Description:
Number of helices: 22
Shape: globular
Radius of gyration: 25 Å
Largest sheet: none
Strand content: under 5%
Number of strands: 0
Amino acid sequence: MENQLENNVSGASRFIIVLTTVTAAIMELLDTTIVNVALNQMAGSLGATIEDIAWVITSYAIANVIIIPMTGFLGEYFGRKNYYLGSMILFGIASYLCGNSGSLWELVLWRFIQGIGGGALLSTSQAILFDAFPPKDRGTASGLFGMGIVLGPTLGPTLGGYIVDNYTWGDIFFINVPICIVATILTILYIPKKADEGKHKDKIKIDYLGIALLMIGIGALQYVLEKGESKDWFQSREISVISLVALVGIVGFISRELNTEHPVVNLKIFGNRNFAFSSIFVMVSGFGLFTSVFVYPVLVQRINGFTPYETGLSLLFPTLTILPIFPILGRRMSAGASPIPFVVAGIIIFAAFGFYSGTATTDMSKWDFYPMQLLRGLGTVLLQLPLINASVAGLKPSEFGAGISLTNMIRQLGGAFGIALANNYVALQYAQHRSDLVANYVPNNPLFAERFNAIKMSFLSRTGDAMQATAQAYRQLELLLDRQSYYLAYLDTFRIISIFFICVLPLVVLLRTKKKSAAESAAAAKAAAESH
């Protein structure tokens, strides 16, 4: 069937399939990062705190966590083309409603739905693209898709920054709508169906209970991690109850998946030691990647005064620098190179990035941040593909699909949890630094007195009112105190990322890899295409 499908795809049709699928993948990945530079503007417009506005990112990631392991059987159930088409339409409608949201929680809801459509777009796009090429040209297909995977998150902050600076934050979602319309038309006209698409519904068993327990467990746990600090953790009845719900959901999900004949997520592969330990590294890599690209834009906009567009550019140029490494690394992995040295290098580089970022100053320009972001990009490159290879190294070919799907799910989960933990850590460190700094705000401190008098005289020279100048000087110092406290808290957060990576580094000795045969390499590539 597969060969028949490939033979029916002409050169012109193949070009359109490449254009459609790669564009859809870029659009989905772009939306994972495009909002990062607009968080301050969203928070101000919707009357939310930076801590609450983080739900706009995590709701999308959690939706991806839920949908990624389900894309395989949903594609089989509805037919891959129909499922792809429906996901495209859902993504476009949700994008439009995101842009029109009038409250934080309305936006969070539509972002979640957008993530349901987007998670399916990414994984199904790669499978469709893979099947449009004959086996000898699938390396080219993988390279094209790999470029899309890099460009999406890279262009997101830059494009988002330009839009926010020149238009409104809602427009970062509206730009998806015309793209979705064109992609929908091209999908209907040019993307072929497999001969047996959607014809095995009666044989497919959907684990509805497993899906429900996954959603309840992960959703409740995410809420506890996001809100625990502000509600004083288990001193709050609300947090205690929701923690119990999370525990019941997660334990129930694990029990269900290990005992049902048709699990939505095949947890039994955690019995493979190599996969289990690789998953720890995948979780930490997701934590580092998502947390760093969440904290950095907030830092440079709040503290260094970057515009959203400048923030995007400061992320774009370092990523473009390391872009050529992707195909080189891909060829090395395809040739059977051991992923472990790359994983070790990625961990060390990402840890160095965290400590280096912890030395940032308030007067740095976007080019001053270039070497820091270059380290982040390089660490990310050296971790992502090698970790997928390390994860499936000990699995049977029949388990590759489940292993890669679960690996991607764990990475998204690490990112969602990482943002929540970072928010709590920033709040905790802010309070600590504010308390320490306030101790210096006393009249008998000569440095404080000198600074206060200088600010007061500046206001007095403009207003001529001594009482008003005094009040304004105190307000100005209060703002400086807040700014400095947040600045130190953000630097601490970068350092804690490094500590996570250093803690898992010794576990590398527990990883084992074996060289895959040509048949196993082909099966792994196919599974990667169909599992995202």
